[in-house]
Amino acid sequence: MLELRGRPVSPGLARGKAYVIGGGRVAVPHYRIAASVTDEERHRLQSALRRGADDLARLQERVQAELGRPEAEIFDAHIALLNDEQFRQRICGYIEQQQVNAEWAVETTVKDIAASLESAENEYLRERAADVRDLGRRVLRHLSDNERRPLAYLPAGSILVARELFPLDLMEIDRAHLSAIVTERGGATGHAAILARALAIPAITGVGDAITVIPPESELLVDGGSGVVTVDPPAHEAEHFSPTGRPPPGDTDAGPRRRQVSSLSRIPPRGKPHARA
Fold first, then answer.
1. DSSP sequence for 204-264
2. What pLDDT was estimated at residue 150?
């Protein structure tokens, strides 16, 4: 038996099998392009941004139907950033001035914006870095025409163990098979945490080296109220935990837990190259 501790972000008790993701980093293509094909790369980028915004608009409609307008507003800033001309121009600046492919330009721009947010003193702004990284992954997915969504096919009774969980991932998961969430990174004001509370999914973050120390398929107990994860627990402890997740004792509000959230602030540029209009 192994006991791990983190920060509780969504209350509830759950047991299930560890579904571990995020052990390796997906390589982003990086290559030089000829000046004659920069327009083609710009068109690829514009198409990926447009498709990403369309995806998010559909997802936002689904969230509003399931949870209500306050939760759906989480995605307002995501959509605004994908449609933002300054954001597009920053990426195009890399394509044109450094003559690199669109994927690498997106990756570099997103890293720069996320780094700016992570250096902020305000905790809310620091946690918005995850949203920017999430958007970058979505744009890269469209650039590569990779529509795979592995989290949409979780085994029944899964407890998701990840380095970081993004709100877009959470809404695409087969939630009927998701018992709880354990992550290494994130905070109580992160959008994924807010959605987990709204969906009444037990969740703990800040569990150091979770994807390394928790073996795939191992039995887990998650106490989202205290922030404790138990790996391979004794049978008598597991009896008190639900395979589908449930509110902690004394919590009479098992329905959606809603919270108004504000949009991402405009991210100031950091002196990176800009494309011509």
1. EE--TTHHHHS-TT-EEEEETTTTEEEES--HHHHTTS-TT-BPPTT----S------PPP
2. 65
Give the span between the Cα atoms of 2 and 13, in whole angstroms. Answer: 17
Give the model's confidence band at 102: pLDDT under 50 very low, under 70 low, under 90 confident, else very high: very high
The CATH number fitting domain 2-24+151-238, selected from 3.90.226.10, 3.50.30.10, 3.10.150.10, 3.40.630.30: 3.50.30.10
Residue 79 neighbours by CB distance under 10 Å: 19
Q: Quick one: which H or E segment has residue 162?
A: strand 158-162
Helix axis angle, 102-118 relative to 123-143, nearest 10°?
A: 170
Return the top range by mean pLDDT from 42-46, 51-55, 245-249.
42-46
CATH of 38-143, one of 1.10.274.10, 3.40.50.11930, 3.30.479.30, 3.40.50.10490: 1.10.274.10
Strand 178-183 to 203-205 pairing: parallel
Share of the chain above pLDDT 70, in %: 84
pTM of the model: 0.72
Average pLDDT over residues 12-29: 83
